[in-house]
């Protein structure tokens, strides 16, 4: 997907999320207003009730935001754990292959050392090798 397409999708997605939040807030406001009407609660301080309703709506919206952010955090933590596991497996595999490579090189070195000893012994027996002195 191109950057413009992704940005467009992201903008639409963000707008949709904003509309969902606004819809949620409006539904809560309606709910609390209906509750107020049903109770026929008369208070001399209308501002207190309006503030109470606004705070209840805000609390519910914030709870939803916290829930959304918790889901994102959980997803990020699970992704991080998955990546860490993959990296650990890769490192273990690398250590194993390098250990095997070291063993192979040690074996090759031992074989070459034995070949050199054999050639040196052969040369000494034929008298063509210089003597250590």
TrEMBL record:
UniProt keyword annotation of Metal-binding present: no
CC terms in the record's Gene Ontology section: cytoplasm; microtubule plus-end; mitotic spindle pole; pericentriolar material
InterPro entries named among the record's database cross-references: CDK5RAP2, Cnn_1N
Coiled-coil residues: 59-89
Localization: Cytoplasm
Keywords annotated in UniProt: Coiled coil, Cytoplasm
GO biological process: centriole replication; chromosome segregation; establishment of mitotic spindle orientation; microtubule bundle formation; negative regulation of centriole replication; regulation of mitotic cell cycle spindle assembly checkpoint
GO molecular function, one term: gamma-tubulin binding
The organism's place on the tree of life at top rank: Eukaryota
Pfam families referenced in this protein's UniProt entry, alphabetically: Cnn_1N
Keyword flag Cytoplasm: yes
Domain Centrosomin N-terminal motif: 12-76
Stored PANTHER family: CDK5 REGULATORY SUBUNIT-ASSOCIATED PROTEIN 2
Protein name: Centrosomin N-terminal motif 1 domain-containing protein
């Amino acid at each position: 997907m191109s950057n413009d397409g992704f940005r467009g999708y992201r903008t639409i997605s963000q707008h949709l999320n904003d509309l969902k939040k606004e819809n949620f807030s409006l539904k809560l406001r309606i709910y609390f207003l209906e509750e107020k009407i049903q109770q026929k609660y008369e208070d001399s301080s209308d501002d207190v009730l309006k503030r109470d309703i606004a705070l209840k709506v805000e609390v519910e919206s914030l709870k939803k935001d916290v829930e959304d952010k918790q889901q994102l955090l959980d997803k990020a933590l699970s992704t991080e754990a998955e990546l860490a596991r993959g990296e650990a497996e890769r490192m273990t595999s690398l250590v194993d292959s390098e250990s095997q490579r070291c063993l192979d090189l040690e074996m090759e070195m031992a074989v070459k050392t034995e070949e050199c000893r054999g050639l040196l012994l052969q040369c000494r027996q034929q008298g063509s090798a210089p003597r250590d002195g």
